[in-house]
Amino acid sequence: MSDFLVNLLGERLVNSEKAEIDVQALGSKLSVIGLYFGCSLNGPCRQFNASLCEFYSKFKNSSEHKDKLEIVFVSSDQDQKHWQDFLQEMQWPALPFKERHKKMRLWNRYKVTSVPSLVFVEAVTGKVVCRNGLLVVRDDPKGLEFPWGPKPFAEVVAGPLLRSSGQTADSSSLEGSYVGVYFSAHWCPPCRSLTRVLAESYQTVKDSGQKFEIVFVSADRSEDSFKQYFSEMPWVAVPYTDEGRRSRLNRLYGIQATPRSGAERGQCCAPQRGAMLGAVRGRGRGARAGQGADPANRREDHGQIQGHGGGDTATILCGRRGRHERLAARLHQPARGSATAHHPGHVGPSQVRARRGGDHAHGCGAVRG
Fold first, then answer.
1. What is the SS3 assignment for 291?
2. H/E element, 263
3. CB of 215 closer than 8 Å to CB of 235
4. Do 135 and 251 meet the contact criterion of CB atoms below 8 Å apart?
5. Tens of pLDDT along 5-50?
6. Distance between CA 11 and CA 16 in Å, rounded?
7. What pTM, to 2 d.p., does this model score?
8. CA 256 to chain centre
9. How far is residue 79 from each of residues 71, 73, 94, 114, 211, measured CA to CA in Å?
């Protein structure tokens, strides 16, 4: 483990007292590293830092797993004094200020696009355990769910689901179907545009006889906005008042921005060939497409993502009006690689990877067959 950590972090870290810490001496019991990407000049980072300090203190003082976790600060500060002053507020070590190359390698390896970000990774392999550590700190302040690995989709989504008509359905009704998980919000203009296209594609797939459903996970700022937006949707939704379930789904897929889609196969279904919403069948044990995917299990190239390994996967990239009908016509056509359709006005496509029943996400933002 120590050799891997030295390769990942370098031989030395520093703490708030400017003392050097030997990475090999972090401890043989260490199983999870929290990589905290931040900047002293960023307001949300300073706000989150206070919450993280409280979380870290409680974990180290009371958790039975206190020796299994360490956090390492990866700064994007350009000024050394700002970096040093910010480090004074932290109880955990940091990459030295001068190690800009190592910092950039970590940003690239874990596909970090914004700060603050907290990514939990395995200390032995560097694989992502949970990409959205910010939600871990908020939802599990005592660290009772350590090491915050993924749970089966059926367990996370379990509970009543709403329809815009006012009726309810139990999540068990999803069993045996391909399920798209749609993270969106009324306040987001690209979301609303995508929703209109998605509704047409949804109806096309339903009319073709496919067993398919979409679950809306709202990021709206009020229940009234949620109700107004959901009234435009033909699929089901997690109740807005069930904030815990919405948050757990966000954690499962590492969602940090909207619009975004994820996909699941009903937990109890028998394997069958097929795809959903204009997906094309790919080969591979793939990472879920999108910013939450595990970089160890995916290849990204100009918006196209393809998994590697065994098993069936389907990649869906929902997008341009008119294109969805042509893609939907390819439901039963085998193809190589991924289909890509960008949505006008949206930076990058909304991406989905479908997978087989009985699987569960490998890491908060990754799906592995």
1. coil
2. strand 260-265
3. yes
4. yes
5. 999 999 999 999 989 999 988 877 899 999 999 999 999 999 999 9
6. 17
7. 0.64
8. 7
9. 22, 15, 15, 19, 55
